[in-house]
Amino acid sequence: MPIRLQVSIARQQLQLLDDGRLVQTFPISTAVAGVGERNGSGATPRGRHFIRACIGAGQPSGAVFVARRPTGEVYTDVLAQTFPERDWILSRILWLCGCEPGRNRGGQVDTQRRYIYIHGTPDTEPMGVPLSHGCIRMRNADVIELFDRVMPGTIVQIDE
User: CA dihedral defined by 22, 10, 101, 68, rounded to 10 degrees?
Assistant: First the structure.
């Protein structure tokens, strides 16, 4: 079994597994709205997913993304004060796609069309506490490290 990711919403952890062996555990932050698959729910979807795209290779730590494109900005406290309404997507994006039709793929429960990512967030944001708008947030250094170990097609299992 190749590299895969296991996300525990209850433990607020992401585990990197290689051939079924635990390689590393990262703290994360999932949705403040809890779990759910429906479009507009603001919840973190459950079930089997895969990484559809890895976005941000070569960008600096703290690079700001809007609509999956780097803006050319690097996150700072001054930038955060200038744009307090932004949901900061930083450093790298691992765009998820559901594998389970009717649960997390297709219709009103489509993870990919909901733009659910594993992504970096300001390092001032706490990990281990659900605070996102549906995505899985990680520390910038952690998401960069993870990005370098996965590829499109990598399986991501998200469980409560």
Answer: -80
Full-model pTM? 0.96
Q: How high is the pLDDT of residue 88?
A: 97
148-151 contacts at long range (C-beta below 8 A, 24 or more positions apart):
149/3, 149/16, 150/3, 150/5, 150/51, 150/54, 150/94, 151/51, 151/54
What number is the average pLDDT over the span 61-88? 96
Instruction: Report the alpha-carbon distance of residue 65 to residue 99 in Å, rounded.
Output: 26
| Cβ pair 55, 93 in contact under 8 A | yes
Domain ranges of the chain: 4-159
Q: Which CATH number fits domain 4-159: 3.40.120.10, 2.40.40.10, 2.40.440.10, 3.50.50.60?
A: 2.40.440.10
- Of the candidates 159, 149, 157, 158, the one whose C-alpha atom is nearest the C-alpha of residue 54 is 149
For residue 25, give both structure tokens. 């555990």
- Catalytic machinery residues: 119, 135
Among 145, 142, 46, which Cα is nearest to 98's? 46
Residue-wise pLDDT tens digits, 8-30: 999 999 999 999 999 999 999 99
